Amino acid sequence: MDRRKFDQGNYFRGIPTAPYDLIKEISIALVVMLVVVLALAFVLSSPDVPPVTIQSWAHAAPLDFLETATTELQGSSFTADYGPPYNDGTGQVQTLGPLQPQVWAGIHQLVDAPQADVIGPLQLASVGRPALRAALSQYQQASSSQQQSWLDAYAKLLPRAHVSGLQVTVGPGEDGPLNTMMVALLADARSGALDALLMHSGRFYETNYTQALLFLGDGNYFANLASKLKLNGSQWGMMNETGSYPGQSWLWLYTLWYQLPPFNSAGNADLLVVLVMGLLSTLLILVPFIPGLRDLPRWLGLHRLVWREHYRFLNERSRQRR
Hints:
This protein has helices at 8-11, 22-44, 54-60, 62-74, 101-105, 113-125, 130-141, 144-157, 178-191, 193-197, 210-218, 220-228, 252-258, 269-286, 296-300, 302-306, 308-321, and strands at 162-164, 167-169. The chain starts with 7 loop residues before the first helix and ends with a helix. The longest helix is centred in the N-terminal third of the chain and has 23 residues, at 22-44. Helices cover 55% and strands 2% of the residues. The protein has a two-stranded antiparallel ribbon with strand order 1-2. It has 17 helices and two strands. By secondary structure, it is mainly α. The protein folds into three domains: 14-45 and 291-321, no CATH class; 54-208, no CATH class; 229-289, no CATH class. The radius of gyration is 31 Å and the shape is elongated. Helix 4 (62-74) crosses helix 6, helix 4 (62-74) packs antiparallel against helix 8 and helix 7 crosses helix 9 (178-191).
């Protein structure tokens, strides 16, 4: 086209147009969104709930802490028998027939619960504490059956332990060196040292909280807090922050399945939900290629509601031409 003969008015003649100020509309939209966001943040802002740590757990529920540490040593905790990616247990392995993605992925973050949660931290903290070092040595040199006998005896004594302020008194019994070890572990937890000891990896930056979170999750204290704040899976917890405060609302589609049968009672619910969401996502991607499904928008005619002003203009113009 010869630009010298180009006439914009003639070029667009017959094409319906409307005044449109992009800068003005964007500015108005941004101001409105800012006002709405600030208003909602003021009304619905999430409360400043302090983080849960091993230290706060040991102060708030010392008996639960000691009972959990005992199960870690016994190898009977949730984590000890979890399975991949932490260990070779089977307690939390989810499969569906021959489909075993958790097993296929293997163990890539090995967690030995007795060593990681109790023995290891106590060994690091035993420097300058001869009584603790002697108790650790006695425990580690004992046979497996002797260790189990001490653990069983200590586990039976714990429910009758007396808590007074910062003191937890466990009655006498055939628990060998365990009371000395557990008293030291509780003291380290209350001082905040155990939080750091559970993250000890020898690296300059310690940013892996996996072990501390697994230890917390093995006890009842953390689960009870989650229940009170409505963060459990059965309480749509993925969509909440704390209490009734809204959180990640875009996760509703994932959370929904956990409330419905058979997902809400299935032992492999996580795997089932992942498969369902994977199937739905695949169908969404393939919509343009599936006959019938791709034609639904045209058949339903919803686009005509969105562009009703445009179609009204075209109809009026068609009538005028007749």
